[in-house]
């Protein structure tokens, strides 16, 4: 059974697939969800192959993106960054029934916004696993609000 955070993430991904056109080819209803645990991307355009990440967060204020958002595994992200690969980001903010969607294109991302977290301790269920978070402080003005 999915956790509350997983359900929140799925809700954001479904919202993007339903309400947003593909930023590359501009077609509606072509964004589809990738399988769970697909590395570094959550949606794909089934027409042009565009890939993007979706992050969803409950917030008090949907009028501006938060300064920090947790993300997933650091290793695949750092490997892609080393290869110069960045995925665009849809940021879904929810406050009760209010929803805002922001977009940060890959060409406006920089390595400094990706911050590695401390690896899990040796006694943790997934010992050694390391995540990361987005630090949006330097790119707050680069987000475009879509919804």
How would you portray this structure in words?
By secondary structure, the protein is of the alpha+beta class. It has a single domain (4-145), classed as Dam replacing family, catalytic PD-(D/E)XK domain (PvuII Endonuclease, Chain A, 3-Layer(aba) Sandwich). The protein is built from 2 helices and 9 strands; from the N terminus they run H-E-E-E-E-H-E-E-E-E-E. The strands form 2 sheets. A 6-stranded mixed sheet has the order 1-2-3-5-6-9. It has a 3-stranded antiparallel sheet with strand order 4-8-7. Strand 2 and strand 3 (51-58) form a beta hairpin. The longest helix has 16 residues, at 4-19. It is globular, with a radius of gyration of 15 Å. The mean pLDDT is 95.
Query: Count the helices. How many?
Result: 2
Q: Summarize model confidence as the mean pLDDT.
A: 95
At the first level of CATH, the class is Alpha Beta
Termini gap: 30 Å
Task: Order the strands across the largest sheet as they lie in space.
Answer: 1-2-3-5-6-9
What is the number of strand segments?
9
Strand content: 25-35%
The CATH homologous superfamily: Dam replacing family, catalytic PD-(D/E)XK domain
State the shape: globular
Give me the Rg, rounded: 15 Å
Helix and strand element order: HEEEEHEEEEE
Number of domains: 1
Assign a percent range to the helix content: 10-25%
State the gist of this model.
This protein is of the alpha+beta class and 147 residues long.
